[in-house]
Amino acid sequence: MLPSLPRPTQSGITHCAGQCSNITVTFAPSSAGLKTATVHIANDDCDEADYDFALQGIGICNPPVFSTCPAQQTVTAANGSCTALVTYAATVSGIPTPTLSYAFSGATTASSSGTGSGLPFNIGITNVVITAVNACGSTTCSFTVTVKAPEINVQGNGINIVDGDNTPVSSDHTNIGLVNVGNNAVRTFTVQNTGTSNLSLGSITVTGTDAAMFSVGALSPASPIVPGGAATFTVTFAPTSPGLKNVTLQIANNDCNEANYDFALRGLGFQSPLTLGAYPNTTLIAGTNTKITPSVAPTNAVSIVAYSNTNFTGILTVNPGSGVITITDAKQAGIYAVTVKAFGSGGLTATRTFTLTVTNPNCSQGLFTGTTNVGVGSYLIR
Question: What is the separation, in whole angstroms, between the first and last Cα of the chain?
Answer without folding.
Answer: 154
